[in-house]
Amino acid sequence: MHLSKTNADVVIIGGGVIGCSIAYFLAKNHGIRAIILERDAVASAASGSAAGELAALGRRQYSDDFSKFILAGIQMHGDLYEEIVQISGIDYLLSDIEQVRPAFTSVEVSELKEQMVWQNSFLGLEAEWLKTTDLRSDYPWISHNVLGGVVTLEKQLESYAFCIALLQAGETLGVRLKTANVVGVASEGNVVTGVKISDGGMVGTNCVVLANGPWASIGAEWFGHAIPMIPLKGQIVHTATASDLDLPRYSIFHNSAYVLPKPGGDLLLGTTDEDVGFNNTPTEDAKNLIMEAALRLAPSLLDAEVRYITACLRAYSSDGLPILGKIPGWEGSYFATGHGHKGITLALITGNAIADHVANGESQIDLKNFALTRFQNLQENIT
Ligand SMILES: Cc1cc2nc3c(=O)[nH]c(=O)nc-3n(C[C@H](O)[C@H](O)[C@H](O)COP(=O)(O)OP(=O)(O)OC[C@H]3O[C@@H](n4cnc5c(N)ncnc54)[C@H](O)[C@@H]3O)c2cc1C
Predict the structure, then answer these.
(1) Residue 284 Cα, ligand 1 centroid: separation in angstroms?
(2) Does ligand 1 come within 6 angstroms of the Cβ of 342?
(3) For FRET with 59, which of 110, 226, 271, 330 sits at 20 to 30 Å CA-CA?
(4) 116: how many CB neighbours lie within 10 A of its CB?
(5) CATH class of 105-154+230-317
(6) What confidence tens digit (pLDDT) does each residue in 261-278 have?
(7) Which CATH architecture has domain 1-94+157-228+318-383?
(8) Using an 8 Å Cβ cutoff, are 13 and 19 in contact?
């Protein structure tokens, strides 16, 4: 690709985990020093508040292809942890944690057992079914009302520290960060010539990456596209346990409810999936719902004290998959959004692949399932 030398070879809009990861891989693997334009603080949106769990399963079982992509993303976390910590000097505490998925009804028992077979045979994980008595003795925080559950070994990290580590590692290699609210793009034909800033300024470039989370749906309009993606609000309750109560050493997940002890010492209770537009204000209702659901999973939480609640927005596409790759109809501009519940998990694999596309027009990691053009019913309105 041709990289102009105006103000920046590559402009990345959004200083979340996806933007910081792309910038890091561009610098490290291709020697391209991108500029990140972030209107607020780095990691101030979902990337700084995410639970930081890295697991192949989500609320539901994903397609085989997407599950493999997620597993490859988790593998990269293991492979690159030492390198990123070493370059950045920031330890974001990547660690293993046992995850328990309990069943409360016989239908859930069948569903979980079926899922477990798939996890073992297709994903090659070591998922194990534990009956009620074993669950109760090995995982004493779990409710006595369960009918058994699946246990797997997963990974987790501290999300805010991870995002800052990626930024710091990138900056060490020449990445620049500028506080700027991008409000549009200037173009000639099908090539961008710069991005417009709200103060009337402009950053010249021929290459733009839209990595601004749910706000990429607004950015897509600058390129004449409407993307099927909503902001999906999620809230998390941060608690402190009574001083005589040790934190559990495992997490408990059931549908959208979870209890997750963090390596940094917090105990997180999640979460909600709310379709309420770009509203990211924490609410009392959500806190009560989350506490209720968490208590059902782990009655010991009755003594937990609520410290604070966070609310932020996931970029959620209509089929639940990320939107990655070339912006149709444009030379040198890219989408990197739509990571839904999995943006921390997928940050490294996305960053690596998008950086390869920006530098070489292709990547070893296949992104065709994530192209915007998959939404056949979208009539593209290319400027
Ligand atoms: C409650 C909750 C829990 C989660 N838990 C997990 C988890 O356990 N594991 C996991 O893998 N994922 C999790 N996620 C998902 C994950 O947080 C997101 O997928 C990920 O953070 C998305 O990163 P991003 O960089 O795309 O977007 P964001 O973090 O939203 O960052 C986008 C950035 O772009 C900036 N921006 C927007 N518009 C502009 C503009 N015009 N100009 C300049 N800057 C702009 C914003 O200020 C923001 O900083 C969770 C999400 C939520 C809400």
Answers:
(1) 22
(2) yes
(3) 226
(4) 19
(5) alpha beta
(6) 998 888 999 999 999 999
(7) 3-Layer(bba) Sandwich (3.50)
(8) yes
